[in-house]
Design a protein that fits this description.
222 residues; alpha/beta; ten-stranded mixed sheet; 5 helices; 10 strands; globular
């Protein structure tokens, strides 16, 4: 199993154009969904620099922030304190989450748990099941095998589902696990799968258009 590696948040420029300080589109739906279900104990798994923790904290959730990056946690803490919010903070590896069984009724992990290999992914799934309460929901994203990154043959193949990202930037040499529908169904067989969507995002860089495919999945512990 490959060693876990997180983002290098120290080189991410934080200004008005920083997308990592703005909540994802899906998080607004989840905020309303989980509030209507009276879910209040949220784990922001892979919190980054705090974009989702701040949003949920401002709306009455009890937020626990977890990330492998101490720099990310420190930036989240600084932002939260400026907003008058108090969170629980932990630095660690998602392969061994430092929480008791049945701790959370909602878990958010956007562009996070795929930063491992296949064996690591199985451990993460087991950890999610352990720390989630009965009827808890988790929203997660996974890179799709349809996306351009999985097709980069010059990126080292760690196992049949995983490549090391070799672009210069905050994800340099970070493992990326890629899935397909059947693999998702197998990984989360112990959960109720509420919803699976494959979403494609388009973006332009260096006068080229790239398409990025991700699976968006809601799972429930039953």
């Amino acid at each position: 199993m490959i060693k876990s590696k997180g983002w290098n948040w120290e080189i991410v420029k934080e200004d008005e154009n920083c997308i990592w300080k703005n909540p994802s589109i899906e998080s607004y739906y989840l905020l309303n969904r989980w509030a209507s279900q009276n879910k209040k104990d949220l784990l922001d798994l892979g919190c980054g620099i705090g974009r989702h923790a701040i949003m949920f904290g401002k709306n009455g959730f009890n937020v626990s922030c977890f990330d492998i990056s101490e720099d990310g946690i420190n930036k989240t803490r600084k932002w939260a304190e400026s907003e008058g919010l108090k969170f629980n903070y932990m630095v660690g590896d998602m392969l061994e989450l430092p929480y008791n069984n049945d701790s959370f009724d909602s878990v958010l992990c956007v562009n996070v748990i795929s930063h491992t290999d296949t064996e690591g992914m199985k451990k993460v799934v087991n950890e999610l099941y352990r720390i989630m309460k009965k009827d808890a929901e988790c929203y997660l994203t996974l890179g799709s095998k349809d996306t351009w990154g999985f097709k980069q043959t010059d990126w080292p193949l760690v196992d049949p589902n995983t490549r090391l990202r070799m672009e210069e930037g905050p994800e340099y040499k970070t493992p990326h696990f890629y899935a397909d529908y059947d693999l998702i169904m197998d990984l989360f067989k112990d959960f109720k799968i509420v919803n699976i969507r494959q979403v494609v995002d388009y973006y332009e860089r260096d006068n080229k258009v790239f398409d990025s495919y991700h699976y968006h999945v809601i799972i429930k512990k039953i």
